[in-house]
Amino acid sequence: MWNAVGIDAWLAGRKSSLEDARVTVIDIIDRVQKNGDTALRELSRHYELSEIAVPDEEREAAYDDVDTKIVECLIEAHARIERFHELQKPKDLWLQEMEPGIVLGVRTTALNRIGIYVPGGRAAYPSSALMCAVPAKVAGVREICACSPPPINPMTLVALDIAGVTEIYRSGGAQAVAAMALGTETIQPVQKIVGPGNVYVTLAKMMLREKVEIDFPAGPSEIGIIADSTADPRIVAADILAQAEHDPNAACILITTDKNLPGKVGQEIAELLKSAPRKEIIVQALNNSGYTIVADMEEAIAASDTVAPEHLSIQVADPLSVVIRVKNAGAIFVGKYSAVACGDYAVGTNHVLPTAGYSKMYSGLDVQHFCKNASVEMIDKTGLEAIGDIVEIIADAEGLPAHAQSVRIRRQS
Question: Which pTM value belongs to this model?
């Protein structure tokens, strides 16, 4: 259950789970494309789906089913997430004079309609609702459509309402992704789909990229921990269990320079498991997990960058020296008190992050994911004279004389 594991083998296991789901996801997408709402109802096997859209009255009534303290905490979490993401908001337009007669810049606009996927099933994830919707609202997205597996937990409905989501639908799994990408009688297609999910959701997002943009592959949760002899074994074990309880397909890896630490962590895991309410899920996730012992911190950093974990916890004597050298991670948690769970809920950063090694090429969800940029060029006669010869010569060399002529005529006017 808690054994040594090779870095390559660990990462290969993360990738193979996606491929195992491919045939099923292809069939689901095909059914939704052909049958729309009927397919959504048929694929909702454990819940009789009579009404796909959640009416406003149900959204409002959800507040009565959620403890007041929880509602207050969701409101506070929303404020903290919003405050951090406001710092990321780009200017609508910036212009810079590059030289006399040439002003360049960027015009940034928000997407008009996006879809968010909020997981359900084994647990309620109102936090994911906030994490997906807040940066979209900050960016200026007007229409936010949310899908979540039925029955949708009242806490999730409350979170979606707090975040200002415009539409909520009872649909989960790959079929929900297909519905948002392709459209059905009830759900209008969106420009982009964001949010975490299981391997079926993740693969559906990846397969539908010809129809809709996505954030990145965000599958079952994972954590990488770089630790040395100063790490507290109980804290390391606690972070491992926190991620393992998400899903049987979650995975954790400890990378350490201390050959004695894995044994101590294993003992703490066994102790904490005794009272863990989600023990069955954790045990399954631990089968995907393990540790590797390295010679020094350079090797630890290299191993971590190969894994490119969703969450990276750094538990070493000099953590900042590691932070500045690490290249691949969805989010980095530095030091003993920086619990990954804080990033999951209330510190303000986003917990929707690339998994399965995809942090090598993708960033976690932020405001820019909901924006698009257009370059702006303002050139007067002086500026045109400065670059006119360059443009004409290169255009003629490429065999595009009309390009050169479009500049030459202006210079002669």
Answer: 0.92
